[in-house]
Amino acid sequence: MIERKLDAAGEAEPLVFVPIAQRGGEKEELGLFKRIMQFFRRWPVLSTIILSAMVLMAVFAPLITSADPEKANLRHRNYAPLFMDAESDAKQVAKGGEEGNYLLGTDQLGRDLWSRLAFGARISLSVAAVSLISGTLIGTALGLMSGWYGGLVDEFITRIVDVWLGLPFILVALVIAVVLGTNLVTVFILLALLAWTPFVRQIRAEVLSLKHREYVLSAQVTGASTARILIRHLLPGVINTVIVIATFRIGQLILVEAFLSFLGAGIPPPTPAWGAMISDGRGYLRDAWWISMFPGAAIFLTVASMSFFGDWLRDRLDPRLRQVD
Amino acid sequence: MAKYILRRLFTSFLALIASTMVVFLISRMVSDPSVLLLPQEGYGMDPVAFEKMKDDLHLNDSIPVQYGYWILALTKGDWGVDLATRQPIAPKLKEKLWPTGQLALSAFVVATVFGIPLGILSAVKRGTYLDLGGRSFAMLGQSLPTFWLGIVGIFIFSVKLGWLPSGTLQEGFFLNKNLIMPTIVLAWLPMAGYMRLVRSAMLEVLDSEYIKLARAKGVSRQSVIWKHGFRNAILAPLTFAGVLLAGLITGSVAVETIFAWPGIARWAVEAVFSNNLTVLGAVTLVFTFSFIAANFIVDILYAFVDPRLRLT
């Protein structure tokens, strides 16, 4: 972590290894390769590329795919992806199937995996975004209130957070999914319920340290309302923390959403969702591994890029938060 | 010290009460539980007997009174009746508890035994390829979906290579082949957490003044790392143990589902799809109890390790 902080700050990195005598003029002498490497270290290039690719894939899903993600074609079941040798396709044809032309193959119902993957990105990303936003709003509001009012309000909110964190979320989520029925709104609610807790704790702590500062006292003296103090004076002070926690949280939300839909408590089929697609392929590992592998890889890439991006953002905005996760 | 323990005991008790309330409320939210006890579509229902049954089960009382009866039964070891089989839950729960415990325990041991030393190694060899490898390993653990990891494991080691069985528990042995893959899949995430935590704690300690002093006055590097550094860096992972257990619970739901493990987590998942709320509630309570108990133990341990806490 420390060396990355130095990278972000700029030229400090060579200090660690290079003796003083050799350091002069280092900047100009850097070769092209080294300069590129330094650029990659300083900016989260790869994760930005992957994340924007995922977002673009979700937004332009109808444009970049040709097949309907929900249309089954039983004569094209379990077709191999294009990059694999033609042998497996030939096998399908020999079994009485037809020639297929599927970038990532088809699933057990003959649905085009590439378009399911692209449309599935819409579900995964939108669910994560919506629940993250609502969770952020709720958590930040509660954290501000808890820190500002103190006393019983604080005690009450902190206790709720403690109890909520003590419950096994996945099981509670499954119960709620059974009660409310599995649909998009339920998933939004469930993940919002997961998202809010870390905001409360961290922001409460920050407000506690901010609320006795001069500028807050001055605002109070000039007669600013509580709402104004919280929103105009305290919120800007904690907004960096909010952003950093949010970037760390979104990866987790994507993972949990995928897990819920894997268990069958997410968006109901046939709507494509990454977790459900992994579950679809479980029974076909021997014949059609691609059904499970591609959506899983998509989840992994998204979450990993998000976590790299979060690391970078944290070091930029708020190095004190190193422990947050 | 006694005061500290008492206070922790009190808050744990509060959490316990609150969690039973939440579980109870959720189980009553669905609909009238008596409906779940009816034979299919009310066929052959005797209204008089039905009313009598509702009376016997206290379902005609108000919700708080029902809660009281439920808690009372719970303290007597009566976990209610499995709605699917109409058998009492308690014996089956006891029978399924061990496989889950076995899996969680072995994952905990693996995560601790490998996670902490790897974190230290990563901190001591900071900036080397070893460190890079360790950090990548941790990054993988935190970004790979556990349920997908299990499937990939089955695909590689069961389907392609045929080295390991793809699931379920064998009788008898504690260390059997069936345990290997579920344990690794379950342990990876907590191991990653340990590594990151120990690494950053260790880096912070190694950067402190007294370490520099110890090195400056000629204490060997090994001795500084283990005697001065490690002892102070070990506090961080201890607080993590509670979080780790929460992760193990979520993880065991995934792992037991994928490896067809005969434990309580899979039982709960199965219960979801048959609307078997009594089973789901019981399992949720077991997990919550163990979580609260573990956090309590961690708090006490923490006070033993870090004397500063005892005074507060």
Overview in brief:
The complex is a heterodimer of chains A (325) and B (312). Helices cover 70% and strands 0% of the residues of chain A.
Give the arrangement of secondary structure elements.
The complex is a heterodimer of chains A (325) and B (312).
Chain A: H1 2-9, H2 20-23, H3 26-29, H4 32-42, H5 45-59, H6 61-64, H7 87-94, H8 113-149, H9 151-166, H10 169-180, H11 184-195, H12 197-210, H13 214-221, H14 226-263, H15 274-281, H16 290-317
Chain B: H1 2-29, H2 33-37, H3 47-56, H4 63-75, H5 89-124, H6 129-143, H7 146-160, H8 177-206, H9 209-216, H10 221-233, H11 235-258, H12 264-273, H13 277-305, H14 308-311
Note poorly predicted spans of chain B.
Answer: none
In whole angstroms, the N-to-C terminal distance of chain A is 14 Å
Terminal residue distance of chain B: 9 Å
Enumerate how many helices of chain B there are, as a single number.
Answer: 14
Number of helices of chain A: 16
Shape of chain B: flat
Mean pLDDT of chain B: 80
What is the gyration radius of chain A calculated from CA atoms?
25 Å
Q: What's the rounded overall pLDDT mean of chain A? A: 79
Strand content of chain A: under 5%
- Strand/helix succession of chain B: HHHHHHHHHHHHHH
Output the structural class of chain B. Answer: mainly alpha
Strand content of chain B: under 5%
Largest interface: A-B, 48 and 55 residues
In this structure, how is the largest beta sheet of chain B organized?
Answer: none
Along the chain, the helix and strand elements of chain A come as HHHHHHHHHHHHHHHH
Helix content of chain A: 55-70%
The backbone outline of chain A, from C-alpha atoms, is globular
Total DSSP E strands of chain B: 0
From the helix content, strand content and strand pairing of chain A, which structural class follows?
A: mainly alpha
